[in-house]
Amino acid sequence: MTAFGPFVARARAAGTLVVQPRMGMSEPGRMRAGLLATKDAAATTVGTLTLDSYTRTGEVAAARRAVAEGVPLNGYPITSYPSGVTRSVLHGVADDSFPVQVRHGSARPEKIFSALLAAGLHATEGGPVSYCLPYSRTPLREAVDSWRRCCELLAASRTDGAEPHLETFGGCMMGQLCPPGLLIALSVLEGLFFRRHGLRSISLSYAQQASTRQDEEAVTALQAIAAELLPDVDRHVVIYTYMGVYPLSPGGAQLLLDEAARLAVRTGAARLIVKTTAEAYRIPTVGENVRALESAAAVAAGERRSPPGATPDTGIRAEARGLIDAVLDLHPDIGRALVLAFAKGYLDVPYCLHPDNAGRARSRLDHDGRLHWSDPGSMPIGRSGRTPAAPALSSSELLGALSYVQRSYDRRAFRTSVADGVSVAR
Amino acid sequence: MERGKAGKAGLNVVVTTMVSDSHTWNLVFLQLLLEELGHRVTNLGPCVPDEVLAAECRRRRPDLIVLSSVNGHGYNDGLRVVAGLRACPELRGTPIVIGGKLGIAGAEDGARARALLAAGFDAVFEEAASVDAFRSYVRSLPAGVLL
Predict the structure, then answer these.
(1) ipTM above 0.90, yes or no
(2) Integer Rg of chain A from CA
(3) Which of A71, A184, A204, A390 has a CB 3.0–4.6 Å from the CB of A320, allowing a cystine?
(4) A134 to chain B: which residues are within 8 Å by CB?
(5) pTM here?
């Protein structure tokens, strides 16, 4: 039996960052080999079963057909195999020293939750907002109902040996260009939703953005708000290495991963989802994932947590707390409150096209990579959170903002290589 | 809105992707670009099922339909979707274009674009370098054209 939350808590107590890949293969033998390689990496790791896109969108028949015909999928089709197959993938791999989390991306994940429980797993991730608005056409109200049922199902699996664990994806909305105050608010609100529906072991996500200093302030704020609002659950913060347009050069990709590992340690996060140097081009190999896990662990081992007060407060914590309080005031049931908040525009994810998102809020990146609101729409955000008189992004400015991290890290890698005397120009 | 009512104020454009594609930054970019050119955009968002796309286009009678896909399934999905759209009598003459990252193999010899044109698209714009070509194409369309 694997207990995800206690495993991470033990590593944190020992001062070790837990690192985790994204990994999913449709063939059970290859999936098992990938998990074993993750377990054997020279790092404190947890395993991942990333599901394929047919399974995520509920097209179980299409996934079954692909499995029957031996067509490789972009992930592990957990609902298409009998639970015995998944148990055999995990047998002797998943244990107290190596918990495994299921990663999916589904707005209505009932079948996925049933399948992972049937296979003896108790850890997964997502959320009623974060797996509905960016990727699906499911009405938010339906996603909230589905996620309530799923939380209750997962919570009911609690036994002496296993405390089920659920991670919010709300801190990763859209991957890029969402200002941190809203990322924190969504992550905490989804955490509160999970607790309301029975979960007692919860992790809160935050995705690395384009300014390390802003990210440090944001994760510090997330830790503080989580301590205030989720004091009575086992909880930790998980950092996602940058999810937007990725550096093209291996050096730039490595520098970005290094930065994410340092961010996690400095801010007291307990777990890091890594990315590889192949990220800009294709799904990484197992070997590339292992190298990313090991290098992130090595960078983390050389970093220390920042002392309290080390991060200047530019107002992110107050902005996030203001958003959370405004939502909680809308209705005593947090699911209803979330639906009302999006209908009123109190939560409004910039550049998100879902019909239940107001779509009035707009963000900008400033010259040093910090995210701001150029227009907060109807969200209860004061003047201080806005760029003074900043116009909305034009189409070419949007492309520039989307590739800002790629350009700046590729440039840094080039400069570093020149300074090291291994000049690319030669 | 009736096709042709856009008049000199610009075109009514439907921007969309197809059922298997959950990417949206490409759709956001195209909406901004078309709005900067003075056109009105209805953005259908990610993972649009074939029947939703056809129903929306028949209802809205747009002056231009722009399909964008970046997940590598755009070629296969596009062949199927354009056949469905052209089967609707109201959309037989509507300009329909496709662009993005349409296949899983990067470079190709133009066979993909020829097949998409033969299937019913009016233009094919592959990869990011084709933004200028797309802009020129849109500029070449008469505003509020009655076909």
Answers:
(1) no
(2) 21
(3) A184
(4) 22, 24, 46
(5) 0.93
